[in-house]
Amino acid sequence: MHKRNGFTLIELLVVIAIIALLMAILMPALNRVRGQAQKVSCQARLKQWGLAFKLYTDSYDGKFNNRDAAGGVWMTALRPYYEGNDEMLLCPTATRLMLNSSDWGTFKAASLNDYVFSYGFNSWANAVEQDRGARWKEWFWRNVQNNTTVIPDTRTTEGRRISTNTIPVLGDATWYDAWPRHTDSPSLTSDAFGIMDQGTSGETNHFCIDRHNGFVNILFMDWSARSVGLKELWTLKWHRSNIISGPWTKAGGALPQDWPAWLRNYRDY
């Protein structure tokens, strides 16, 4: 009898079909695992930034960098604390540099001078000493706060204590800094070029990007880092006078249908 060697064409096609089916089943799960690993890695990187900011502010009487001073942007001011480790400027999901101004994207890195980055600084933390146009100097944090800090509140005579774990310092973003306000309207598109195209009228949107499946990672002024829901960004204490129950929060009356379609199904805050 003739001894058969190898597989027939039909058998090979069946094996290939089974492999393709298994890949189709496994790929979404593998992508989820990969995304979760990148999210955790991003949080760990932001915690490293927490240490860098603490070392910097400890060296300058608690003050943050002054954006208006020479070399005042945060990447330059903190360079001694991460020199030789430039990947700290990048979220693990957003390491590829955009090609040009039309190539903005949630998962792209931006550039300024010699820096390539995909994290952005809350510029209300800057140690500025004068108004910057309509950005009033009284709104800036300037120094590291603590949980005993009391800020003025027109609704009471005693003021209000703040919690430093609600004051953002650094996080996933499309640009290296922004001045978010509670009145910022959310972007109509999830495309980061559309977000950047809003200029200074909606700077919360520099951070409102779907980089971690409905969340971004944020470093807070108590040097903790955690995931923040995209709509939750409007509840954070970005500056001293920022209202945490503004028009885009549940407490402020916002309804799911008020949000742009791409944000509508995400959790409300």
Q: What does this protein look like?
A:
This protein is of the alpha+beta class and 269 residues long. It is built from three helices and ten strands. The protein has one domain. The chain has a five-stranded mixed β-sheet. A three-stranded mixed β-sheet has the order 1-2-3, with no helix packed on it. The chain is globular and about 80 Å long. The termini are far apart. The mean pLDDT is 86.
Rounded to the nearest angstrom, the radius of gyration is: 23 Å
Could you give the distance between the termini? Answer: 75 Å
Are there runs of 5+ residues with pLDDT below 50, and where? Answer: none
Number of domains: 1
The helix content is 10-25%
Mean pLDDT across the residues is: 86
Q: Given the C-alpha coordinates, what overall shape results? A: globular
